[in-house]
Amino acid sequence: RPRAGGCDWRRLSDVSHCTLLHVAASLYFAIALRRELAEWASDPRQLWAVVQPALSPALRLYYVFQLASTAEMSVAMARSLASGRAKDGPMLVHHAATLFVVIAAWRLGFVRVGALVVLLFDATDVPIDGIRLGQLMQAFPLLGASAAAAVVSWLVVRFYAFPRFVILPALTATDAYWATYAFVPPRHMLAGYALYLVPLAVLWLLNLRWLLQLTSKLRSAVRQAASPTLLHAGTLALGLVVLAAVAYVETLAAAATPAAAAARA
Question: Is the separation of the CB atoms in 52 and 107 below 8 Å?
Fold first, then answer.
């Protein structure tokens, strides 16, 4: 029965499946690829270097898994929309753009860019999965904790760190490409940039859209259950956590500057 005991079991199984994928992929990256991630964070410009180092076996395995899971989710989302079961068109656009970024990164040699994008998305999808599980199981503590974690992680990671470490270096640290491919007409180079940067920009805009929706729903729910004073205090506390996390991200970015590299040398 689809709603035995007041729970939509089919929906719960779908959400549980996605949650397991997100958690498993994030844990694997944290365990097997944490040193590579630290190197990327210390100098994001290497993500877009003309000459890329060979893939480690762990990174290759992670990337093949992400290619398969992203493709599977995209097909499943398309089938759900076609059958009328789902009506979230922007989510299909998000999956399609992510799949394009992952495939293009593999084909063009920027595997680390694709891996970093899906890592950031997987890790910040875990709190969203917690919100969905909390709603389906009517577990308010899980729902509240997941909502707060989702707002903080999306503000820091998707809204700020994603453009800071992925999109910005693609715009400011790719001078070597113009020198290496000086024989290519500028309009073709610009078309190549657009082909890869536009999907990244689309992903960021969709993240912003969902972040605004999430914060609006969260404030409305808290406003109904708490006093204005508690609402303002909670907003201030979340704001301080976000600022502290952003400051930490900036320490990573500062460590990637030429002056910092010279100082370490």
Answer: no
